[in-house]
Amino acid sequence: MPRDHLRSAERSASATGPPGRSRPDAGRPVADSAEAPFLELLARGAPAEAYEQPVLLARAEGLPAERVAALERAKLLALRVRSEMEGRRRREAELSALFETAHDLAGLRDLDAVLRAIVQRARSLLGTDVAYLSLNDPERGDTYMRVTEGSVAARFQQLRLGMGEGLGGLVAQTARPYVTDDYFRDDRFQHTRSIDSGVRDEGLVAIVGVPLTLGDHVIGVLFAADRRSRVFEREQIALLGSFAALAAAAIDTANLLAETREALAGLERANEIIQDRSGVIERASDVHDRLAELVLRGGGVHDVAGAVSQVLDGAVEFTEAVAAPATALESSRAEGHAVRHGDDWIAAVAAGDELLGALVLRGHPGLDPVDQRTLERAAMVTSLLLLARRSAAEAEQRVRGELLDDLLDARDRDPRLLRERATRLRADLDATHAVLAARLESGTADADQEADARRRLWAAASHLAATRHGLAAARDGGTVLVLPLAPGDTATGLARRTARDLGTAVHEPVTVGASAPVGQLLARPDTVATAYAEARRCLDTLRLLGRAGDGSAAEDFGFLGLLLAGERDVAGFVDRTIGRVVAYDERRGTELLRTLDAYFACGTSPARTKDELHVHVNTVAQRLDRVGRLLGDDWQSPQRALEIQLALRLHRLSGITQPPPAQP
To answer: Deepest of 250, 395, 411, 568, by most Cβ within 10 A of its Cβ?
Structure first.
């Protein structure tokens, strides 16, 4: 205790108390007796509020004012000593934590473990509910949560903060510490719905954040936060900054270790490349032999890709020109070399200036020159195979077209020779077929463009005929096809599929008309020509009805189909229109056909119909209801009614006798 304080306390003690009365503390300085209780409190580490007790007790006992004043002074001195001791203990704990963290950093093995230790110690020393650390993502331009301690909200733990968003985004952007004692009332930073929702889920109120810096660059932010309002002291912010510096050093050390490991791995790879160089040369020789063998035995482009995949130990595939990256493909064609595209390599498959496709090596960014030349050699072989296949395909298309031309035009050809030619093309002329007429609907005025479109249509039709064991030829500004009908298939279904397939192939609408199913194409010399004429009439009808780009057969047009059909399929029309009613009368012995005749003859009047048939009007209603269930609810619509009346008339005129009237 300072000497002047002691003298003052002694003078005060000598003037205290009435004369002639002895005091218990006589002979001792007042300062000593005033400080004693506070020394005991300091010795046992009592809380700050306990230091008020000696003063309050002195006042309660009515001790002299000098005594109380001495106790007050002693209390202030004791509290100052206590504060100094607490500060030193706190600094000792902080220094100890920083030393331990630095020790962890020196023996860095796991970066995540070091960062977790830093966050845990920061939370413990600052006495906060939560502590967390975020790192910047240069690619996305934001900062994300890396480590949290004390957090309970999943959404908060997955937050990403844009630069300038939230308190953390502001720290990451400005490289300065920021403190808020009430987050949601602080307008110094930008609030966003996602960040505020995460902070609200966690229940945070007071937050302090300090930057993690490496040189002049901010790489992240270290936070401490409470779920209640709180003012963070300058010493606490400085302590958090010290932990942030250690965290930045840990990250920097980890990055250096990673770079060192990567450099060592690079040296090892270089050594492996040197050792494998002889193996690469051997692989180049091997692929040359394999490609030569493929060409000699007639292999395809996918066989070439498979052989190169084995040699290059990667996935090589052939793609059409439209499916390959346009810029890389054009660069490869112009330079005559394979070019890199991302992690892939593209080698153009070309014949002169025409691009036929590309060979693509997937996932091999580090292709060496020898393997690159191997890929280029494979692309050259692929182009030769494609040209050979194209020549063969064009020859087959011509042969198929010539056979179909002979079926359409040559009346005196030997059926046996025609059948032999079809067999070589894997076409069965004795099976049931449909003859189809196809035409483009592009409507271009340019003659060259129209001619090119017709060639594309013929090529697509020839390919379709070859894959379906049929025939195709260019004729009358369009294309004619003869395709077999599968069991259960219809001419209408085949026409619609053909229109869709050809339109997809040429990228323009294609209209297709189909004949009725035709069996035994060689039965009569004019069988195919007659069916083709029917298909063309159906095609013209589709275009007149505004159904360009669709496919259909004569059977789809009701009684109009009778006009389109080459052989006037009267029985088929009658059966499609009223066949179910005819069959019902034959099975049950009813008079539905006779009732229908009378109903239409009487102007669709049930009352007049019952007089014509001499039956009750309820009987007429019941019969007509049965007809509706057999023919469909729309049987009395104008179009259906006209078809039904025509079918009834044809049914009578064709000689088909009605069943005898039912016996009463």
So the answer is: 250
